[in-house]
Amino acid sequence: MRKPIIFNIQKFSTHDGPGIRTTIFFKGCPIQCQWCHNPESQSFKPEPMLNKDGQAELLGKTYEIDELVEIATKDELFYDQSGGGVTLSGGEVMAQPIEFIEELTRRLAMRGISVAIDTCGVVSQRNLERVLPYADLYLYDLKFIDSQQHKKYTGATNEKVLNNLKFLSDHQARIILRLILLKDLNDTDDILKRTLAWIKANHIHVEEVSLLPYHDFGRDKYRKLNRECTQNFKVPTDDRLAVIKQAWEDYGVPVKIGG
Ligand code: SF4
């Protein structure tokens, strides 16, 4: 079985879904968001990155499924007490060798561990079908309702994102919709209206919406990867966030600001 490359395993994470979680970060992403704060997750290959001592270290390695299950099950008690579990993130987990991801998800689910899939949606529907019987929750990014904007800022149009979101919703998957917000680009009234209209017209059921205002905390990582950081986005104002939050709540969906 082909093994994916993993670049980080974060224990006691509280930002990647409900409760206390272990988050496994898979290396490799099919798109390139211009605001990406995990640039080390974009390439599918191990790559050198400066560590805290300023030394170049090869980032990314493979694990056996048994090893990952063993690491994840160590914190089972915390998951049970907090309503947490394991999050498979990235990069893009659904763009990894799917036999491996399906089996990992299945093994964790069989242990009674809730597995969340964190996805950008630009993935094959076939891959989503493979994890559907075992995954408990999807952290689903909707970056731009406008396909041309999606293409401009991520490199890919949004047809797959919308189709896959509908597919998951039609299959009664539990979905937390994650909206990354960039000032004047996708936090406007027009985009808000278009997004809600699409959600309504397509009968999309989401359990919660997370509003994720843009930040540039990942800037230093570009330097450590010897890459240029050209990000020049602006942070939405608190007033805009309040308006967006209210609009979703009026639509009947609980909203959280932050991950
Ligand atoms: S989907 Fe996530 S990991 Fe991939 S480029 Fe965008 S922000 Fe980075």
From TrEMBL:
Origin: domain of life: Bacteria
A Pfam family annotated for this UniProt entry: Radical_SAM
Transmembrane segments: none
E.C. number: 1.97.1.-
Residue span, Radical SAM core domain: 15-254
CDD domains reported in the protein's UniProt record: Radical_SAM
Cofactor(s) the protein requires to work: [4Fe-4S] cluster
Record key words, sorted: 4Fe-4S, Iron, Iron-sulfur, Metal-binding, Oxidoreductase, S-adenosyl-L-methionine
Major enzyme class: oxidoreductase
An example Gene Ontology molecular-function term: oxidoreductase activity
Entry keyword annotation includes Iron-sulfur: yes
NCBIfam families, sorted: PFLE_PFLC
Entry similarity comment: Belongs to the organic radical-activating enzymes family.
Protein name listed in UniProt: Glycyl-radical enzyme activating protein
